[in-house]
Write a structure and sequence with these properties.
The structure is a single chain. This protein has 2 domains: about 240 residues, Thrombin, subunit H, CATH 2.40.10.120; about 100 residues, PDZ domain (Pdz3 Domain, Roll), CATH 2.30.42.10. The chain is about 15% helix and about 40% strand. The chain contains 5 helices and 20 strands. The chain has a 6-stranded antiparallel beta barrel. It has a 6-stranded antiparallel barrel with strand order 7-8-9-12-11-10. A hairpin with a 5-residue loop joins β4 and β5. Belongs to the peptidase S1C family. It comes from Candidatus Harrisonbacteria bacterium CG10_big_fil_rev_8_21_14_0_10_38_8. GO terms for molecular function: serine-type endopeptidase activity.
Length: about 375
Amino acid sequence: MRKEVPVVKFEEVDTYQSKIAYEEAIIQAVEKVSPSVISITISKNVPIIEQCIVNPGIPNGFFGNGFQFTTPCQTGTEFKDIGGGSGFIVSPDGMIITNKHVVSDNQASYTVFTNEGKKYDAEVIAIDPIQDIALIKIQAENLPVAPLGDSDSIRTAQTVIAIGNSLGEFQNTVSVGIISGQSRNIVASDSNTGTNQQIEGAIQTDAAINPGNSGGPLVNLKGEVIGINSAVISGAENIGFSIPINNAKRDIRSVQAEGKIIIPFLGVRYRTITPELVEEEELPVDYGAILRSNQEGSAIVPNSPAEKAGLQEEDIVLKVNNTKIGLERSLVSIIQRYTRGEEVTLTILRNGQEMEVKVVLEERN
């Protein structure tokens, strides 16, 4: 009796080959970026708390002879590791990008471990006052640099890879997921310092981001960094957030050129237009930022670039250099990508008439 020869369908072969190609793309992306990923150890002097015996000074016999009790007391300090984070190298001479909340303790010391296992003392050289971004420096040369991609070109559902010092213990841990959403506005808290950080325009991903991953790269299949892993929702699974890498490029350029992070300043207060605001006020457009005074002050800051350019209260700013303003990209997040002295063109709507206004940005004091 003849044996039946199994028939392999072309669809199955194509599926298998596609899976192999997909896995190979992930492997190559990780191999491309991993040499530039570093781990950060946070160390500081902490109190030594012991149980001390206290004599309450009560006469013998009142509670029995020799009555004493114990209470916690500080007997000294010890220098120890208190936390960890991640980062990645952005210049061959040792400039590293990480999260502000990872290196925010002025009393702590920071040690960097490279992918090769080398150990360096790190110095915090710049802190972004607005974003959860910091730059640190180690004394080294000819280091591998992470390729930076374009976070404006990302798409929801595309594959991404998170790399970092998972839980502060497992160096260069890799997790794979997708971009679950874009332009999320969240408040991230740091368990080490107890501080909160507003993150605007964040990338949401289901790639696992754990304590210790903060500051590590979020990578696309080309092996390019598209985000800085920053936060995870406590008590929720598969919800992590990264800062778009384009938000950090200005900081890198600024520190390399000026030695500090220079924040561009437009000088307006505004409300981002929402569907609710459109319906409530019957606005003529459904996107943009409407310049309005609030409890903090007037819509146009006196002597600001906005005032010098002739912007007025109730102007609706529609675009900055052809980038539309909306819920996904706020006015402030777009302006932050430029630097002091740059001229930007604002497309505005005033009294129903669309016009363009050129503004030269200044440095925020």
